[in-house]
Structure formats: C-alpha cells, structure tokens
Design a protein that fits this description.
By secondary structure, this protein is of the alpha/beta class. The protein contains 16 helices and 17 strands. The protein has three domains: 53 residues, 3-methyladenine DNA Glycosylase II, Chain A, domain 3; 251 residues, Alpha-Beta Barrel (TIM Barrel), CATH 3.20.20; 119 residues, Rossmann fold (3-Layer(aba) Sandwich), CATH 3.40.50.11600. The longest helix has 18 residues.
Length: 451
C-alpha cells in the first residue's frame, strides 16, 4: 500500500525551500502521495528514502521498459481494473513474429509490412511496436543473422528474443547492445540458466508456466533471486483460458496486491489459430482485457488498423478530451483562392468537418483553433472560442500569407459573433457556414469570397 502524505513528510528534511517546485514540504509530500510528483524532485532527500518511497508508491503492476533512446517501449504500470476509475497507462504492445525457419522472402515481407504500416491519427502515429525473433532449430548463427536483419530493417522495433537456449538468448542480447530486448522465456526446467542470463545482460525476462499457478510460483522464485523485471505468460493457448488468466492476473495484482502476478503479461494469439481474422478477434479481446503484449503472426493493414484504433480509444485518458493540434490544415490541395474555414480542436469535430470537406472535393484551408478539446458551442460558452481569441489566432496563424481573399467561414452555430469578429478582424469578411457539417459539400461548391 502506498504511503500517506504525512508518512512521506516525516522522511523529508522539512526545509520548505521550494527547490522542488512546490512551496512547502507538506504540499510536496501530498503531491508525492497522490502520484503527482516524484520523490526524486527533492534535492535533499536521501537515496534510502527515495528507494523506500519509490517502492511503496510503485504501481501494483510493474512498468517494464524495452528498447532504447527514442525507441523505447513501455508496458505495465497499471493501477486500475476499469478505465473510468482513472486511466490505462501503457497501450498493449502489438508484435509480429519472424522465425529462423522462415525463408528470406517471408521474413522480408513481414518486416517490410511492420515498417510500412504507419497511420497518423489525432497527431499520433499508430503502428505495431515489437518484433518477436524466434529460434526454432537451436542454430545460434541463424538466430544471430535473423536478429541482425530485424535490427537493420526495423530499427525502431522493440525486440522479443525467443529461444529455449539461454546461450542463444545471451548472444542475442549482446547483439542488441543498449537496445534492451525481452528474453523469452524462463520455465521450471531452465529457470536458473535464464535467470543468470537476465541478470548478466540486465534484461527483462518472460516467465512461462503451464498454468497460472505455476507461472506465479516461478515468478515468486525469480523475484527471490533478485530479478525485478518480469513479464508473465500463463501458458494459456485458448481464447477462454487466456481471457480468464488475464483477468485473474489483473485482479490479483490490483485488488489483492499479489506481487507474483504484479507484472505485465505476454500473449500469443498467433499460436491459438491459423486464421488471421480469428487471430485479430482474439487480439481485440486481449487489448481490452488486459494483455501487455500480443504477438501476432503477421501485420496486414486491414487487420492491424482496426486493432490500433481500438487500442487508441481504450488507452486514451477518459478524463481528457481527444484533441488535434492548433494549426492550418490543407485539404484537397488548396491554393490562394480557396475557401478558409475555422472550427475547434475537439478531435471528433475535426474528423467530421475535415471528412466532409474532403468529400466535397473542394480545395480548402481548415483552421483549427485550440479550444482545449471542447466542441464549438461548449467552447464558445466557456469563452474559449470567442471573437477576440479567434481573431488573435487568425492573425498569428499565417493564413493571410496563403490566400489572396479575406473571407473567413465560421460555424453556423457561431453566427451571433459575426459582428464582433468583423470588428476584431476589420480586413476580413465573415461568412456564416452551415450549422451541420453534412451541409458543407454543397455550401463549398457554391462558395464565393466576399469583398
């Protein structure tokens, strides 16, 4: 259980110096207890206190970090069972599998799809995260060669090294260098050797038991040997069993603080079916409940994209609206005589409006004003989409350098601010657009600038 603010305050130097960015030690302690500040922000606290507070305030499911530099992948760190209670922290990692038994063409195709299938949505790049490199014949040289291809062709991928040989995994970890891989997997038969390699290479280690109970026992044993970074595979390879195990692991860690299961999980939809659509269906269930990593056989756009969207929606903070960046968005290749529209940065509004403009085939400039994720009317009522703020944005946006005319189309629901906006933008003519986005195509097709 986490420490209270008063318990943390007793361990602080009580200087009230404010060097941590918080005025008093009491306020700082309260923020640390609430998870809003890190105990390390205090320059005078001892390493012993940092370790004690950090351990006590750590999330019930440990955060595991793979990769390096700009290409880090984090999994775990979860603190709740249900998204509405707080939020889910780290999106489920999606992995593609390559093995030493595959021919060169198949390996190249899978890696090419991993690198090519990238999607931009709400300013976020959606993509698969990991490549699982599997040794199927015990050939260390073939494994090293395959790993080299993966690192060369997919440098941003986090790596899962899979082999029953601790020696082969050690060689693979050495080849990865600073790009920390996940070693898969320790079993009751090889746990000591795998633990030794994980310690020596300072890499997270996957734990695989035949059942969830055996996995928990093995996890407890490895923790007793000093291993802190583990990933759990409960051994389930059917939809029903793996689903039940994910729920049990999450509930045991969150509700009962059961440390042997307080780690992220790895699942293998690729081993549960040979049908790609069934594999995608299984993965969609596991993204919601509660897999840390899902290893798929391959990536195809028609399967990967829906999974990425599901993941995006589930792992979005429900307490914060989804927004797009304030900017000028060119649609359909606009030029200096194209219409200029403005709306809020609530993502749903942006996608609806931009979709209708795109469907109209009319080249247009769409100005997105930052309204802190509020919709048009809500933002106007809250004073975040007022005439003076719109005018400031139009002036600084640079749109005046992109068009010859000075006609600005505002949403029909903002018709009441037309006069105020014309006073704030005396060089511009304000035009009232339709109230509903679905009416934009005919409006734009007949649009003419005023003045």
């Amino acid at each position: 259980m986490g420490l209270t603010g008063i318990e943390i305050l007793k361990m602080l130097p009580k200087k009230n110096c404010g060097e941590c960015g918080v005025p008093t030690c009491l306020a700082f302690a309260m923020k640390v207890a609430a998870g809003q500040e890190d105990i390390g922000a205090c320059p005078y606290v001892s390493d012993e206190v940092k370790e004690k507070v950090g351990e006590a305030s750590a999330p019930p499911i440990r955060t595991i970090t793979l990769g390096s530099g700009e290409h880090k992948f984090e999994v775990g760190g979860e603190t709740c069972l249900y998204r509405h209670e707080k939020r889910f922290e780290h999106p489920t990692g999606l992995s593609v599998m390559v093995t030493t038994e595959m021919n060169d063409d198949e390996v190249s195709a899978r890696l090419s799809r991993f690198s090519a299938l990238r999607y931009d949505r709400v300013g976020v790049e959606l993509k698969a995260d990991l490549v699982a490199v599997k040794d199927e014949g015990g050939d260390g040289e073939a494994f090293s060669s395959l790993l080299e291809r993966v690192r060369s062709q997919c440098p941003d991928a986090a790596i899962i090294l899979m082999s029953e040989s601790a020696g082969i995994l050690k060689g693979g970890a050495e080849a990865c260098g600073d790009h920390k891989p996940l070693l898969y997997a320790a079993t009751p038969a090889n746990a000591d050797n795998m633990a030794a390699v994980a310690k020596e290479m300072d890499c997270p280690l996957a734990v695989r038991g035949a059942t969830i109970g055996e996995t928990a026992e093995l996890s407890e044993k490895l923790q007793g040997e000093g291993l802190k970074d583990l990933v759990l595979d409960t051994g389930a390879r059917t939809m029903k069993a793996v689903f039940e195990d994910q729920v049990v692991c999450r509930r045991a860690a969150i509700k009962h603080k059961y440390k042997p299961l307080g780690f992220p999980t790895i699942t293998f939809p690729c081993e549960m079916t040979r049908d790609s659509l069934t594999e995608a269906m299984i993965t969609s269930v596991l993204i919601a409940k509660y897999a840390g990593i899902c290893v798929l056989s391959d990536n195809h756009g028609d399967i990967l994209f829906p999974l990425l969207l599901e993941r995006l929606n589930i792992f979005t903070d429900p307490q914060r609206p989804m927004v797009v960046q304030e900017d000028i968005y060119p649609i359909n290749g606009p030029e200096e005589n194209s219409p200029v529209l403005i709306t809020c940065n609530f993502s749903l509004t942006y996608f609806i409006v931009s979709g209708e403009i795109e469907g109209s085939k009319v080249p247009s400039w769409l100005l997105i004003k930052d309204t802190e994720g509020l919709s048009v009317l809500t933002a106007w009522a809250a004073g975040k989409f007022s005439a003076d703020l719109i005018a400031q944005f139009v002036k600084k946006s640079g749109i005046e350098e992109k068009v010859k005319h000075r006609s600005l189309i505002i949403p029909g629901y903002l018709a009441s601010i037309k006069g105020e906006l014309e006073e704030e933008l005396p060089d511009w003519k304000i035009q009232i657009g339709p109230r509903e986005a679905s009416h934009l195509p005919p409006y734009l097709k007949s649009w003419k600038p005023e003045g």
